[in-house]
Design goal:
The protein is α+β, with helices and mostly antiparallel strands and 210 residues long. Helix content is 32%, strand content 21%. The chain has 3 helices and 8 strands.
């Protein structure tokens, strides 16, 4: 009986020692792997930081060439979020600045008579950025549309009730502006009830050369 008991004790101790050895080996492997991963991440961190994409003016996707102005703009979202216009990293208009309103935002204008006088007063070589909010078409008349078309717009003639539209043109432009986005108000395709989705646009405007 004593021999059997001693044998069982030896087996139990052997099993314990074997289990301890296996656990310690696995733990060391995991520790090595964890430390290896930690050092690998530490080694990659500077490289990761160095490859962080650069930020360009107004948050546009690429840098503008020399003698160009960077701009980014978005129309309003329904009648809730106002449009945003940024030029050369300066936010000229936005809901946060509380200087936008219903209609076409060039400056805060919602009456066609002073709007027409404003359009007529723009001097040659002036960059003009416009974005709609809620409804920018109802109060437009033929003269206002013609004056905006003279700034390089092609969509102004068909701009309708609650359409979303952003435009960048200039007084004295000789061709139609490439900077224009227009989404029609269509109940079958509108993203918001009664309004189409927001339109955004960015680009680089060439400076006037003397």
């Amino acid at each position: 009986m004593r021999v059997a008991g001693a044998a069982k004790l030896v087996v139990a101790v052997a099993v314990f020692l074997l289990t301890f050895y296996v656990i310690s080996q696995v733990f060391e492997i995991k520790m090595d792997a964890s430390l290896g991963n930690l050092f690998a991440r530490s080694a990659l961190d500077p490289a990761t930081r160095s490859t962080k994409p650069p930020r360009y003016k107004c948050g546009i996707s690429k840098a503008c060439p020399e003698k160009h102005f960077a701009f980014k703009m978005a129309s309003g979202a329904a009648n809730v979020v106002g449009p945003k216009i940024c030029l050369e990293d300066n936010v000229l208009m936005s809901g946060v600045k509380n200087n936008v309103g219903r209609g076409i935002n060039v400056a805060l204008v919602n009456d066609v008579a002073p709007f027409i006088e404003f359009l007529k007063s723009i001097q040659d070589g002036t960059i003009v950025l416009m974005g709609t909010y809620d409804d920018g078409a109802t109060k437009l008349n033929d003269e206002a549309r013609r004056l905006i078309a003279d700034l390089g717009s092609t969509s102004i003639t068909t701009l309708g009730f609650r359409d979303n539209w952003v435009f960048c043109g200039g007084k004295g432009i000789k061709t139609k502006s490439p900077f224009e986005q227009h989404i029609k108000n269509n109940k079958d395709t509108n993203k918001y009830e009664g309004w189409p989705e927001v339109v955004e646009m960015e680009g680089c405007i060439p400076q006037k050369q003397d």
